[in-house]
Prior knowledge:
This protein is an alpha+beta fold. The protein folds into 2 domains: about 40-190, Immunoglobulin-like (Sandwich), CATH 2.60.40.680; about 195-270, Orthogonal Bundle (Type 1 dockerin domain), CATH 1.10.1330. It has helices at about 1-25, 50-55, 195, 210-225, 230-240, 250-260, 270, and strands spanning about 40, 45-50, 60-65, 70-80, 85-90, 100-110, 115-120, 135-145, 155-160, 170-175, 180-185, 185-190. Strands 2, 4, 6, 7, 9, 10 and 12 form a 7-stranded mixed β-sheet that branches. Strands 5-8-3-1-11 form a 5-stranded mixed β-sheet, with no helix packed on it. Helix 1 runs antiparallel to helix 4 and helix 1 runs parallel beside helix 6.
Amino acid sequence: xxxxxxxxxxxxxxxxxxxxxxxxxxxxxxxxxxxxxxxxxxxxxxxxxxxxxxxxxxxxxxxxxxxxxxxxxxxxxxxxxxxxxxxxxxxxxxxxxxxxxxxxxxxxxxxxxxxxxxxxxxxxxxxxxxxxxxxxxxxxxxxxxxxxxxxxxxxxxxxxxxxxxxxxxxxxxxxxxxxxxxxxxxxxxxxxxxxxxxxxxxxxxxxxxxxxxxxxxxxxxxxxxxxxxxxxxxxxxxxxxxxxxxxxxxxxxxxxxxxxxxxxxxxxxxxxxx
Length: 274
């Protein structure tokens, strides 16, 4: 039974690899793209306690625009910062708006509301409005995470909800086609070392087809009575479903995790493993 699943998975890996290659060739937009095609997303960050300590508890979060096909001349949005976080600074330091001198922003500490925005300047020769196209980061802001943070803590950064009258959105924009934007909330999550390792079997800080192939290699050697030379960390990373076995099921989960995220469907291990 495992051999049948193995053959199917190898075929699936080949098919997914070809599909992902085609996706890359046609420059499909990054993850977090909304149904309407344009979305501002706040970064979702996972850190271990040791990584957080190495950062001196200071974390920089990026807000990015995805699916930006129409181009924008102005963007403004409000974000509620978790009350346990301390805002250090904010600036339009992204690759799309960093050269823009018209920087909008403000922070109301009493309600933990950060308002960010940028206004693209007119062409200095024609005085016509300029529009920034393509995807990328538009704002960075830095926060301090409490030093008593523990594994499992999640500190959210949420977009301000639309006003009750439905007429004023938390995200305003001026684009060439007046296309409204949607928003994807972000967070800083404290995870344990095991969760951080999960799926990254070859320890290259990425989870992809190579990791699935690595798991299949481990499984094949073990099934053949050989002893694969892997570290304890690689064993933890390879056993993604935590059943104490490294086999085809783990490779399939890794491949599924990679394919969904690469296709623009944000997916976590908890979404795949019950």
